[in-house]
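Pilot study result, target chain (251 residues):
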Amino acid sequence: MSNTPYRTALVTGASSGIGAAIVRRLSESGIEVHALARDAKRLEALASETGCIPHAVSVSDQAGLEALLAGLEVDVLVNNAGQSRTGNITNTTPEDIDALVDVNLRAVLQLTRLVVPGMIARDRGHIVNISSIAGHYAFAGGNTVYHTTKAGVHSLSQQLRCDLFGRQIRVTEVSPARVETEVFGRLIGDMAEAKKRFFDEYDSLLPEDIANSVAFAVLAPQRMNVSFMEVLPTMQVVGGLNFAKKTSTPA
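Predicted structure:
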């Protein structure tokens, strides 16, 4: 238990990975956690484990979100749900663009729009946006649309602090690097191969590392806003510079 003034939290993308870890961690702190995702079976298992309240709703279901939030006071909103794709802008599809924008950015905007008025009325709240280092850095092999949506989440987080200035409402952006989750398995269609390629020879972050980062911000004293947190594996760095020779032609 803690002295946090927050009573309820809503976590999206809660059925597995980072989302499920956040549900566990916030539930341990004594906050009533509403877990939102599409996978009803996984949510029920998580509810049995943690006592969270499951909601099998897609973040793309605007009517479903509005119905859920009509009778729910949310003190902590954790915008965690997200998707990614392989490839870049030269070989993406209209469907991929729409899916990534819908889940990674539009849903974050819509949920924030629905939740913030209640926070303002109560003068109490905390919005936590899970973004990505892809929103801050360009690197070869990254999906252009994914990078763009995460950059939008970063911009939203910054602007929200201006919108909410003078109120007891905090905004935190947590920007992880590589985390060992099922996302990589979905990207290449084989979790065993993803584990071999991305994790077996590397010390990556685990979902609970991000959950602990979120808890640190949420459970911090009210006078303190952890506005931005970039969380990387110790053995991973970002940045760098590529320089093509005059005679070379990029693939």
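One observation from the pilot: The radius of gyration is 18 Å. A full batch analysis is planned for the follow-on phase.
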